[in-house]
Amino acid sequence: MSKTTYDAVVIGAGPAGATVALILARAGWSVAVIEKASFPRRKVCGEFISATSLPLLDELGLLDEFVRRAGPEVRRVGLFAHDASLAAPMPRSDHRSGTWGRALGREHLDLLVLQAAVHAGAAVWQPWQARALRRTESGYVCTISSQQDVRELASSVIIAAHGSWQSGPLPTQRFYAHKPFDLLAFKAHFRGCELPADLMPLLAFPGGYGGMVHSDGGRVSLSCCIRRDTLHECRERWAEPRAAGAVLRHIRSACAGVDDVLKRARLDGAWLSAGPIRPGIRDCYVDGIFVIGNCAGEAHPIVAEGISMAMQSAALLGRHLLARPSAALSGRSAEIGGEFASEWRKLFAPRIRAAALFAQIAMSPRAARGTLPVMKRFPALLTVGAHLAGKVQQMPAAL
Questions:
Q1: Against a cut of 0.85, is the pTM above it?
Q2: I need a labelling partner for 203 at 20 to 30 A (CA). Which of 116, 162, 171, 251 fits?
Q3: Separation between Cα atoms, residue 91 and residue 394, nearest integer Å
Q4: pLDDT in tens, 136-182
């Protein structure tokens, strides 16, 4: 079996993995990125990138292309729940690119960042899958496989950026038994939707929550999470054989605002589903392995911060590794891992906790009945919620 040695091996080429690969490759590191899926590919995701990540995109040299491809600026945050259709200003950013975030489909975003990493010198193994990690005196050996071959990649620095939804053989992958209250994720694009171009509403409905936003190419993205037991009830209620069909009927019946904006809309492509999702805070450094993106910690998608947190966590790790390259590349990474994990929690734990609170309120009919009258009277609370979700929290310089 042939073996190739790199300074860093990154497992996963999504926003987190491709971002850290780009940062390290530009600094002169030899970097390998392992990705099991072929790009471009659609993915269950809300697609929104908040204004807090615009400075990072600028540093990476990707901002102009992102703005060119992405949907319109999201200047208002909203709420569609029961008969309410509320809106309030989105918190502002001071960055030169503009004041507000935008949405871009993952089939475009992931490829954009990964191609930049390749241009910087990163080697991409795609479609290959990481099958095992073996600890050595100087780091790890990662066994990867394709349909035709098996290889070994040796490195002092292993970065797990493989997401959190699927179990697997790696130390950073976990197995979870299915439970009735698991959250399953769904996503679809629509055309002809009457959602205002600058509005991103939260969708609150019994047993779940979601969001809508104008993405690229004139599409509107609708993404949501729903409890497994609620989905089962919906399919029985409407005798709906398709899970996505039951989800959409449930949302439209519970949110008058969604029903209104979708009356003349048509589905663009197939529904996607994934999950269960596992919101929460996990370890950022596991037995010499750095962990970023959703496998380090995942906020409920209700706050639309998933992509931003993934890319920002990657930039944070890149900064720590480049600050002490000799320690990282010689296998002495424990102190770097501890400092990275501490700063990660400081930056991202508040968003994850706020998201958990918002999700609990949105999914509970009793909580919704208690809070909705207050929201109707004081819609500016939506702006406050966006602040708590991290929509104005700026990242320290990454490069």
A1: yes
A2: 162
A3: 12
A4: 888 899 999 998 999 999 999 999 999 877 777 888 887 677 788 88
